[in-house]
Amino acid sequence: MPHFTIPISPDGPLLDAYVAVSQARLVALQVAKQPIPPAQKIRAIIDTGASCTCIDPSVLQALNLQPTGNILMNTASSGNMPHPTDVYDVGITIPGATAPPLLFATVPVAKTQLLQQHGFHALIGRDILGTCVFHYNGPLQQITVSY
After folding, report:
1. How far, in Å, CA of 35 to CA of 115, rounded?
2. How many CB atoms lie under 10 A from the CB of residue 30?
3. CB atoms within 10 A of CB 88
4. Domain 3-146 in this protein, CATH class
5. Residue partners of 51: CB distance under 8 A and separation at least 6
6. In principle, which of 9, 125, 126, 134 could form an S-S bond with 50, CB 3.0–4.6 Å?
7. Is 31 helix (H, G, I), strand (E, B) or coil?
8. Torsion 59-124-117-72 (CA) sign
């Protein structure tokens, strides 16, 4: 089973990933003979408390994406008052220690202003983690994700 193991840094379980246009957007751009924005390399934190994957607006803007919908989102800071946020379809690739990489050709993500000064541009939520086996090894300060 493909997997990767990464250390848990003082900031949490951070990993490198690539965000690109979704498969449908890629095909549409190819058919229209339009340029395809390059995939954006990002740092992401694994967040088992997030129901969906969230991406900073700067990454979505770099890909020249338009929202595909919106949702009401609760956050730790919003309390019981959900706030609307745009949803975008993107492709996400997480390189693995063993081939192949963890690949999502199209996944809806929520636009969320993340604090880049903390060193990450995305939260990997349970929508992606739900397709994997996730092991948090506190004593060894590492996580393993199998897929």
Report:
1. 30
2. 10
3. 23
4. mainly beta
5. 125, 126, 127
6. 125
7. helix
8. positive
Q: How confident is the model at residue 130 (pLDDT cuts 50, 70, 90)?
A: very high
What stretch of H or E contains 7? strand 3-7
Lowest mean pLDDT among 22-26, 40-44, 54-58, 112-116: 112-116
In 69-132, the DSSP E strands lie at 69-73, 83-94, 102-111, 122-124
pLDDT at 115: 65
Q: What is the pTM of this model?
A: 0.92
For 133, residues 6+ apart whose C-beta sits below 8 A from its C-beta are 1, 145, 146, 147
- The secondary element (H helix, E strand) that includes residue 62 is helix 57-62
